[in-house]
């Protein structure tokens, strides 16, 4: 089986997109992340759900998680406001990570290898310069394991 056979249509966003809009898309559609495209339409990054969560929590609380327990729920009300002021670009690392990009004829093992090596929840399947779709980790597992119920 090849990557193009298991790739699924997937939404893409731009770096200028509101971080709040991206977070809502991830939450509403239960996505592991989103593909960020450049002005040329080519993938430029993957914004994982965990990157959004990391942005939501202030650094000082990440450094000392005990603070979250004593702060109560009031700071959580400010999360949407913080996301609204930010763009997707501000949630991405300053130095771009290697992209989990596959060729349409890559095998399932090649898909698994790149996702594992990059610890990515998804991989973009390309045919030349065109995005064919995305393979998520759950789609990959479903393909490999079949219907094991």
Would you give an account of this structure?
It is a single chain. With 149 residues, the protein is α/β, with parallel strands linked by helices. It has one domain (3-145): CBS-domain. It is built from ten helices and six strands, in the order αβαββααααααβαββα. It has helices spanning 3-6, 19-28, 49-56, 59-63, 66-71, 74-77, 79-85, 88-91, 108-118, 137-145; strands spanning 12-14, 33-37, 43-48, 101-103, 122-127, 130-136. A three-stranded mixed β-sheet has the order 1-2-3. It has a three-stranded mixed β-sheet with strand order 4-5-6. β5 (122-127) and β6 form a beta hairpin. The two termini are 22 Å apart.
Topology (elements, then pairings):
Blueprint: H1 3-6, E1 12-14, H2 19-28, E2 33-37, E3 43-48, H3 49-56, H4 59-63, H5 66-71, H6 74-77, H7 79-85, H8 88-91, E4 101-103, H9 108-118, E5 122-127, E6 130-136, H10 137-145
Parallel strand pairs: 1-2, 4-5
Antiparallel strand pairs: 2-3, 5-6
What's the number of structural domains?
1
Radius of gyration: 17 Å
Sheet of most strands: 3 strands, mixed
Mean pLDDT: 87
Structural class: alpha/beta
Strand order, sheet with most strands: 1-2-3
Provide a brief overview of the structure.
The chain is an alpha/beta fold. The protein has helices at 3-6, 19-28, 49-56, 59-63, 66-71, 74-77, 79-85, 88-91, 108-118, 137-145, and strands at 12-14, 33-37, 43-48, 101-103, 122-127, 130-136.
